[in-house]
Design a protein that fits this description.
The chain has 251 residues and is α/β, with parallel strands linked by helices. The chain has a single domain, classed as NAD(P)-binding Rossmann-like Domain (Rossmann fold, 3-Layer(aba) Sandwich). The chain is 42% helix and 15% strand. The relative contact order is 0.14.
C-alpha cells in the first residue's frame, strides 16, 4: 500500500506508453509515491490492464486510456477521460516512442514523418492538452523521456535522433515560456535501458565498455528520477535535461 505521506499523494498522473518497459516502471513508481495514474497504450491493452491492476493493488486509482499520442483527437479524448474519471492531470510523463533503425538513404518519406511524430509532435499534443488546465491552476509538471541520440551522433537511427532533438528543444523552450506560471517542464535522458538489453548477445555486450558504469540503465533508476522531478522536492528545477544513462555521455 502507498503511504498517505507519499511525495505525490493526491496527484493525478498520465504516463504515455506505460503498458511495459520504462513507462510501466514509471507508472508504478508514481503510484508508490501516492499518485493516481492513468495508463496509456496504443495496442498493448492486456499489458496495460495488468499495470492498472498493480496500481490499484497498491491502493491508488488507475484508468486505462487507449490511444495514439500522435493523433490530436486521441489525445483530447485521453485527457477528457482522465479528467472525468480521476480529476485534472497534475503530472504528465511523455514516454511513448519507437526508434526505427535503418540507414538514412533507406528511409521513406512516410517513415521519416512517422519518426518525427513520435516525440516532436506527440509531446507537443499531450503537453498542449494538459497545459490548458495547468496554466489556469498555476501548477503542474511535465516530464519528457528523451534519448541521448538527440545530442550525440545518430548514425543508423537519424529519424529517432531528430525527433529527440526536437523534443529536447520543446522541453527547454516550453520551460522558459511557462516558467512564470508555476508549471515546470523537464527531461530525463537515457541511452539504453535494461528491458532492451540482451546480455547473451555479443553485439550488445560489446557496447558495455562505452558506459562508465559498465552496464546499461536500470528501469527503476529512471523511474526514481522521474518521481523526484514530479515532486515538490524538485520545485526549483525546470528546463533541465537530466541524463540517467549509466555514464554513456561522459565517456
Amino acid at each position: 500500500m502507498c503511504e498517505t505521506g507519499g511525495s505525490l499523494h493526491g496527484k493525478v498522473a498520465l504516463v504515455t506508453g506505460s503498458s511495459r518497459g520504462i513507462g510501466r516502471a514509471i507508472a508504478l513508481e508514481l503510484a508508490r509515491q501516492g499518485a493516481d495514474v492513468a495508463v496509456n497504450c496504443r495496442t498493448s491493452i492486456e499489458q496495460a490492464k495488468s499495470v492498472c491492476e498493480e496500481i490499484e493493488r497498491a491502493g491508488r486509482r488507475s484508468v486505462l486510456v487507449q490511444g495514439d499520442t500522435r493523433v490530436p483527437e486521441d489525445v483530447e479524448r485521453i485527457v477528457t477521460t482522465i479528467s472525468a474519471r480521476m480529476g485534472q492531470v497534475d503530472i504528465l510523463v511523455n514516454n511513448a516512442a519507437y526508434a526505427l533503425l535503418k540507414p538514412f538513404m533507406e528511409f521513406t518519406v512516410e517513415e521519416w514523418k512517422s519518426q518525427l511524430e513520435y516525440k516532436a509532435l506527440a509531446y507537443f499534443l499531450t503537453s498542449r492538452a494538459v497545459l490548458r488546465n495547468m496554466l489556469q491552476r498555476g501548477e503542474g509538471v511535465i516530464i519528457n523521456l528523451l534519448s541521448t541520440v538527440g545530442m550525440r551522433g545518430g548514425a543508423g537511427e537519424l529519424g529517432y535522433a531528430v525527433t529527440n532533438g526536437g523534443a529536447m528543444a520543446l522541453t527547454r523552450g516550453l520551460a522558459a515560456e511557462v516558467g512564470g506560471t508555476g508549471v515546470r517542464v523537464n527531461g530525463v535522458m537515457l541511452t539504453w535501458a535494461e528491458n532492451a538489453f540482451d546480455g547473451g548477445d555479443p553485439e550488445h555486450l560489446a557496447w558495455l565498455s562505452r558506459f562508465a558504469l559498465g552496464r546499461v540503465t536500470k528501469l527503476d533508476e529512471v523511474a526514481h528520477v522521474v518521481a523526484f522531478l514530479a515532486s515538490d522536492k524538485a520545485s526549483g528545477i525546470t528546463g533541465a535535461i537530466i541524463p540517467v544513462d549509466a555514464g554513456f555521455m561522459c565517456m
